[in-house]
Design a protein that fits this description.
Layout (H helix, E strand, L loop, with lengths): L14 E5 L4 H11 L3 E7 L19 E5 L4 H12 L3 E4 L5 H4 L4 H5 L6 E6 L14 H8 L18 H24 L5 E6 H7 L2 H8 L18 E5 L5 E5 L3 H11 L16 H12 L4 H8 L6 E4 L2 H6 L1 H6 L2 E4 L2 E4 L23 H12 L1
Parallel strand pairs: 1-2, 1-4, 2-3, 4-5, 5-6
Antiparallel strand pairs: 7-8, 8-9, 10-11
Helix pairs in contact: 1-6, 5-6, 5-7, 6-7
Length: 373
Amino acid sequence: MCCVTCEDNMLEGLRIIEIEGLGPAPFACMLLADLGADVIVVHRKNGRPAPGMPERSLIDRGKRSIEFDLKSADDVAVLKRLVSKSEALVEGFRPGVMERLGLGPDDLSAVNPDLIYGRMTGWGQTGPRAQTAGHDLNYVSLSGAAWYASNNGEPPFTPPTLVGDIGGGALYLVTGILAGVMAARAGRGGTVVDAAIVDGSAHMMNLLMALKQTGGLSMARGQSLLDGPHWSRCYVCADGLYISVQCLEPKFYAEFLLRLGLAEDTDFAAQFDAAEWPRQTALMAGIFARHKRAHWKEVFKGSDACVAPTLNPMESMAEPHMAARGVWQTIDGVLQAAAAPRFSTEPYSGTVSIPARGEHTDAVLNWLADESD
């Protein structure tokens, strides 16, 4: 019983059951499927996609879809048989929901003691907020991960879903599942992975916390090396488009000034003087506002000035570097990014199918029946 697509087979032989949910849990399972795992997503029988989601969702790509009614004793019994032949299960409900369905960790460890039970939530399985609602921005705000987002004086706002749902949630869930699978295969039994967005997004802050040890990070916004200087931000060009600058190291900063014709300009000589940053930022904003983004792209082309245009996904798809790597693709009319990371032994072709809801129900049930014979 193999995965729907076997482009990257690094995880071939790993079977994962995903209980239909929203956001980070299905994204984590998409990533596992991208890497070759056999992910079987359990969609609600006769259900409809969540509001705003398409009938065939991109984050179901590479998976097999079956439809069960988890309030049906018969369907639950079949699901448990499927779990007994899998290594991991992923769910993203509030704490207690799966237990009420008779599908909690204790219920499923009884049929598969080596099962890795992945739980994806915002607040975690325990704590005062565990049973309350929340969304990505709430989680990363509470964890501290949103504190340095946006320029000083503006309300913090991170790119939607990327820092919380994906970074602090889905990617930590994937890491936990793979660590659990390795331990189970080594004979240490199953485990429950409590992947909470508040935990993961806080953990992601440790790179910045390392800067604090050297004085490079302030608890005040706009005063740190990465969120205060004129050389670490995006600027508006004459056509209203944006360009990013982040030339931290002095040699790169020197190249940046050289390309701008400012190598001898005393206004920009003090790279690390925080008191000068606001004035230097205002001056730099005026410089970039003089020309269109295309002009600045040519000015910095091929240089080590650490400057790049700020693109939307469609623009990114056409950008020469991104196009050469085939990062963005349109498959069956759906704009999507290719699987990552890449492996020298398993080239990725990018032709991954998106299943219809319930498309593989009969095939999976037939397989289970054959396994029982």
